[in-house]
Amino acid sequence: MDKQNIESIYPLTALQQAFLWHSLQKSVQAGLLHVRCMLVGQLNEACFRQAWEIVISAHPALRTAVHWEGVKQPLQVVTRQVELPWTMLDWRDKESVDAKLDSGIEERLLEERLEDFLQAERDRGFDFTQSPISRVALIRLTERSYELVWTCHHLTLDGWSGALVLNQVVDTYEALLQGKSPAVSPVPTFQAYVRWQQQQDFAATKAFWQETLAGYEHPESRPFSQDAEGPLCTSSFVVTREQTATVNAFLRSHRLTLNTLMQGVCSLLLRGYSQTSDILFGATVSGRQCDLPGVDSIVGMLINVLPIRVSVSDSVAVLDWLQALQRQQMAVVPYAHAALGDIQQWCNLPGRLFDSLLVIENYPIHAASDESSLQLENLQSGMVSAYGLTVLVKPGESLALAAESAAVTTEVLTHLLAQFSELLSAIVETPQIKVAEILASGDFSSVSISAIQRRDDGDSGLTGSLLSNSSVSRDGSAAPMSTPRSPLELTLLKIWSSILGQRQQRLLGFTDSFFDWGGSSLLAVQLFNEMQRQLNCTLPLATLFQAPTVRAFAAILAQSQSADASVAKWSSLVPIQPNGDQRPFFFHGGSADALTWARFSQLLGADQPFYAFQRPDLDGREVTMLTVEELAATCVKELRMVQPEGPYIVGGHCFGGAVAFEMARQLQAQGQRVESVVLIDAYRPEVLPDSRRIRLQTQLNLSLFWLRKNYYYHGSRKDLQQLPAKLWKKVQRRFSTAAIPPPTKVSPVQNSVHLDSAHSDAETASVSEASEPVVVSPSYEVRYAQAIAANEWAAARYQATKYDGTLKLFRAKIQMLEWYFGPSLGWQVLVKDRLTNTVIPGFFGNLFNQSAAPILAEQVKAYLSTLPSASMPNPLLQSRLKS
Fold first, then answer.
1. pLDDT > 60? residue 481
2. Is there a contact between 298 and 497 (Cβ–Cβ < 8 Å)?
3. Phi, psi (5° rounding) for residue 512?
4. Cis-peptide, bond into residue 823, ω within 30° of zero
5. DSSP H stretches of helix in 643-716
6. Whole-angstrom Cα distance, residue 340 to residue 2?
7. CA–CA separation, 589 vs 586, rounded Å?
């Protein structure tokens, strides 16, 4: 190995190791990929090859070799320079391919010749210790058509990455033709993803998968077991355009993803063959739903294979079952990075977890423009299956299904795909019928369990009917004691019960309060997302203050859906506690919705009116308020509708502190008196100087902060072992170089250099997107991500000026950047003589948790009682506030 040519060395991921060992034990072709497509146009072969070389040089994953001998663990070695093996073939001189290409016979001859070529490529294999582990063949078929065959290995590349590479090759080629200087934009490397993967919360991931697979037992019958291996058999099926359009309309109508639907169909199919309602199969995930900036552009092996456990409840409606399955998928996203081997070890499940695999090939291929000299058509990739049965789904104008197996015959595969299509049609056409009826209705002729595997005599075993004979077990569940007044109430009760669950063996009732039932801001997000999916409910979360029960909420929802409705609109100001004799406290919480501060309001006491501000564009509209001044002006306008005249008490937390400070300035400019500005753990908005000393000092203090915090909350020896990974993760998140979005369009931002991003974990639910979401309006998580992005944009540009008024700061004892901003968190430069500071035991960002919040509330309550205008003797104004 030429050491001078080594760019970097790092370990393989767990899935890469699995591919390596499987390939070494079976053959190198196990996991080999053939990325194929047709190129149509007048091709400049020299420019096309140069385009490949440019793209290869831009992505380390394409210049990687693998070494496993003589080292403690397998390593991937990235070389600086490689030479891509290149083959040019001209098949125009063959009678079977020239002018007669239009005939069916000649097309079959061409396909046979291509298959022979691909088989030779498989037999040729790869030497993993030599980079690159890929090669390209360009086969000229006619004057204007070429077959591109890119042979590579799943060990270093996934299908998404393959599509990215082809896109960049075509774009680079077009640039070369036009005489431009081609350049592939710099993107994060696969090594960055490996580092991100190593920084995830190991304990939380382990606990999630242990809970997910708890109680699972391998079914006695494993019809697609690999034990009966033979030659690889394949079969395919194409759904008509009309049927595909019907499927897409079904998904849009019910806010389901294609991934959910396909998992549902697979579950039903396996339900019949395994004779158990506890189904477990494998599914591929893209690995690109994580919070690593630029992850969609990384070229490498990010894909993962996860166990999908599905409970097939025969007695529920198919649509309800699918929607529950989608919620289950969403819960998996934060833990989708887990290695399959680790999952199996954590759950103490012997043997192979599953024999069936579902793959959805949805790759980001660019559509060629009319000006492009080269058209890319019929993209496909082929991989030798490592599972007893692999079902591939390819979206498009016509949904394409394929199956491959070394355990059953082609005839069996064809029959299985036909059943798959029938189940798909039955679900789409009759989503309200019971699951058992889907399985039992229709003539789903099937293959018996005893005969499904390949027999020595080659008999396909197409006998018997399994699905029609499957037993149906119906679940019995207690119904609520009260009677619904409308179908809407009953639907809402089901939704609320699915989110809130039950308490002490008691089911949720129509008049039970969301807050008494343990409702929190996070549960509210889940609840409203589900109501949005099922009922197209776009009411604000703050509606729960006005209508905390199913019965009251149903009345408001029914009114809001009427033609003349004008209730429960999204606004900045939310009356969390409008009653009480004290001067109202107007509070801006930063990125979160007003519901987050319900508990804090309760701790302040029933006599303290409390109004919370939130961004008005949390309703899913385009985010337009991109300055602190705009946000403050909107808040002031709504504040004065409740309390027309001062004196005022305004406050804020985190980013909300900047908004509250600006509100006070604007109120003073309007001639109003502001009694006090109350800030809680809010730094003065400022982006830290970009100098080496500041960066080093900041990283050091952040490291010490997270070390102290994690030791305080997780002081056991076991948890302390995980601190280095957690520490590195936090430092990276706070100082990521992700760009702040442009003001013309605000999109979710993963990280920011701004201080207020430190609160995003506590204040918002993480953005988790299932593959191919089909929704009418953004989910509540996405709305909060947009709010965070807009707030960070605004805070980075806010130029706060001196304020002539009183400012009270409540701050955690242990801070992250006190060394730079000082004990008053930077506000001392704006308010000197009338600034006081109260220290609360705890850590920055955690003052509203279960332990610190009561102490904070008592201190705030005591301070508010000392203000000169704390009480409200004016009966007219008191009446206005209560109304």
1. no
2. no
3. -80, 135
4. no
5. 655-669, 692-713
6. 35
7. 10
